[in-house]
């Protein structure tokens, strides 16, 4: 059976690879992206791939996307809330509207799309997969908007899992460093800092998304996929890491 898959931010990076994986699994995919050129170019490559040009921070664009998807796909089985960007905070004096924009893209849109797709997802015993970040759990300075948004989507995940289960299973993936530009220009030190011995690829995340869509005993959960980066215990002078008080 062809499932109907919705992906946000599907024109590039993790979202794009997710679209490809579902298409290769025999599904029909509809994605929203605000990058018109990339979206159009990508959608021309696959018969069962449909592009809706829009910004997920706008509620009318979200409504338009879901209506478009219902028309093109005929059904909705999986919603992947992937689109997000923005990494500034209090040191850059990010203001109320700037903070609100990141929340709108990365947290309000996933809620609103879940609401708009609720009946279809319940009817089809579907799945919601949210994309957070390891930054939901650890931070650099000046990253309040992104960190809060990603922390929020982890909580949204378990809240939705309680509200929509057992019909809809809801899970979240928190990626670490993923090379979305296929740059492969990492230093030996970059790679050595990652316990898995490599920087992640979009496929490392999309394969987990597809796995979670097959599994039926996992819900409300967040999976950190960061090559072990956040698991390393570091004290000053360990592993050649030096804490510099002046750099703080
Ligand atoms: P990316 O920049 O490669 O692609 C994101 C896509 O989303 C782009 O096509 C962009 O045009 C689109 N987009 C962004 N804002 C949008 C909006 N408001 N409306 C519509 N489309 C929008 O990003 P990526 O690295 O693949 O990130 C995907 C997800 O993974 C994000 O939620 C991001 O926070 C998360 N993530 C990425 C990394 C990483 O290292 N790449 C690490 C942790 C988490």
From TrEMBL:
GO terms for molecular function: oxidoreductase activity, acting on the CH-OH group of donors, NAD or NADP as acceptor; quinone binding. One of its GO terms (biological process) is fatty acid biosynthetic process. Signal peptide: none annotated. PANTHER family: NAD(P)-BINDING PROTEIN (PTHR42760:SF122), SHORT-CHAIN DEHYDROGENASES/REDUCTASES FAMILY MEMBER (PTHR42760). Belongs to the short-chain dehydrogenases/reductases (SDR) family. This is Oxidoreductase. It comes from Clostridium saccharoperbutylacetonicum N1-4(HMT).
């Amino acid at each position: 059976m062809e499932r109907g898959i919705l992906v946000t931010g599907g024109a590039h990076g993790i979202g794009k690879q997710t679209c490809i994986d579902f298409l290769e699994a025999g599904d029909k995919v509809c994605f929203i992206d605000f990058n018109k050129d990339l979206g159009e170019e990508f959608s021309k490559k696959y018969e069962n791939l449909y592009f809706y040009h829009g910004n997920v921070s706008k509620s009318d664009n979200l409504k338009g996307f879901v209506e478009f998807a219902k028309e093109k796909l005929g059904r909705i089985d999986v919603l992947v809330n992937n689109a997000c960007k923005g990494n500034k905070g209090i040191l850059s004096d990010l203001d109320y509207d700037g903070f609100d924009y990141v929340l709108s893209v990365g947290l309000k849109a996933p809620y609103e799309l879940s609401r708009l797709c609720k009946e279809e997802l319940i009817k089809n015993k579907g799945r919601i997969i949210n994309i957070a970040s390891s930054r939901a759990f650890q931070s650099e300075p000046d990253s309040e908007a992104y960190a809060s948004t990603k922390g929020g989507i982890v909580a949204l995940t378990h809240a939705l899992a309680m509200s929509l289960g057992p019909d809809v299973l809801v899970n979240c993936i928190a990626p670490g460093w993923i090379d979305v530009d296929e740059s492969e220009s990492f230093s030996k030190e970059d790679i050595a800092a990652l316990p898995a011995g490599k920087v992640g690829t979009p496929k490392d995340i999309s394969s987990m998304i597809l796995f979670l869509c097959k599994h039926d005993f996992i819900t409300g959960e967040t999976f950190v996929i960061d090559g072990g980066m956040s698991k390393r215990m570091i004290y000053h002078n360990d592993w050649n890491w030096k804490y510099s008080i002046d750099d703080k």
